[in-house]
């Protein structure tokens, strides 16, 4: 969907009674909500036999190489030649609303964060049946779907079923002992069998008999309240506070048996179901078990026992008259990785308490009485992952709801905040302690991010995407712009290093004469190029001015790249927002996070990120001093790639939907920002806060980075790839990791 204010957009109209042509292949059910392009787009794509991008971006149509343009069919009555020409050479973005269209368009803009998840609520009717099942209550009776003996159901029996059933048996015995709680004892006995194996069984709520006068008053109250017995939210029951009073059982809460039940039986069972709910929710794929336990504790166990019935469904079961409270068929659903709460992925929701635990342990247990430094470092590093996700979603939400200028400022300001926060805190700690090892760790992390985003991220996306798609194509022109900037940035970043190799004096810490001959061979250790000879004349007069010059030129080149790709030559991305929509599919935008809410979350996440980075640098010292692994390896792996995990997940999702262009751009943009923004900012920071950070890298960093950039450009020349080329990139990355693993620690560590 495009807005009318966008300049240069051609409005197109399509007729329903156009020429009947073959339909494009059915897309995967994961992204059906964003594939409703116009009928003209679909038919022109089928006629021209274009490569369909069935991901978030509708269909990508490219002109086949070496073939003449196909004559336009009469699918569009007006301007058919222009329209079908646009179908061939344009990339059509289709979305439910303007906000989603802006987000999709921002994904193709250089320098903007690429974001896969929705920033608006998707209409319920547009979701696939798989996704609808994730959000539905466990009260729907389906047709017979085969045996209930599955791996997931057996796993439930081993993890929860046996001890829940035993607990219900014990509570049933306790209720029978109280005599007045005997009805609840019978209920617990029935539920013991249910929770041992709840699959294929149903829990019903039967209606209590009422007098005709009371029934009439109840119906009148229901009509006045404007609601029925079922809820509008996912078909669930109406909350108790919305029900007329006549629906409640008279005197139920004053019974002696009810008091005994609420004092003796219910608390134990509610606690058990609460533990099951939390454990199943954290395991994500067992969320149906969490729903089962939550609904039991909140509703089933609070009903009068005579109104709860447990039945086993049969293949010839007729529709049940009584209300169905619980009906579960499987305990594990592998599609729950798609589940979201208010637009936030379930994994990010589950990791959020980890941030609180990290901050409490880090700042309360300052003397390591509860946990050790390695544990705190690990927790701080893991806490960076959900915070990176929240920062990314906040940036995408603000950019999608704002104009271009605001989006560009937000992306430039907060796009690299995750990495910069860690680097700056590490340099400050190293400066305070006079330890040069922290500066070397930062250089290793910068190099690891560069190499990982150039080799590992696109390589992994090629491998995973190549499993589903035999050959994937991408926009080689847009990738060429990023590659050119990457060449320029790598050359600029390592220019001071090459300068020091040429003009610096080689100094060795210790040398031994191997042949016992003064003119023979010498074996030297800890050799490096000394830049401080003659009171640092070489460094302060030549190397440092070169560093400052490069740090000014690289951001200038980045701005020129932004102006080139976003203004003067934006056509190289071939992006077009479709104006035609299928009938009945126009929806207003219901954003998950408003601009102000996203801004607050962005600031809070940045603040928590700073605290976690401070804790990580505070407790990394024992790992650096006591670990037998090279500090190079720690920097290029853990410190470099853990903050980029949300970006890696986005790239994989784009690749699975045959949109490799964005997968490649994710890695390239991060690598370019490392060289053109992050490193100049660190150099600028050292001017105002002197640290041990100098823009002179080791030979290993230089060779690994340059080789990675050259190999990446060679792979991306033809604009198409497969899983074999992705395997080559991943294997080269692991070879470089092996080199770093066996390399000796840097000088100063």
UniProtKB/TrEMBL annotation:
Residues 23-34 have a biased composition (Basic and acidic residues). InterPro entries: CaH_exchang (IPR004713), NaCa_Exmemb (IPR004837), NCX_ion-bd_dom_sf (IPR044880), YccF (IPR005185). Residues 375-494, 598-740 form the Sodium/calcium exchanger membrane region domain. It is a multi-pass membrane protein. One of its GO terms (cellular component) is endomembrane system. Residues 1-34 are annotated as: Disordered. Its main location: membrane. Signal peptide: none annotated. Gene3D superfamilies: NCX, central ion-binding region. PANTHER family: VACUOLAR CALCIUM ION TRANSPORTER, VNX1 PROTEIN. This is VNX1 protein. It comes from Asarcornis scutulata. The gene is Vnx1.
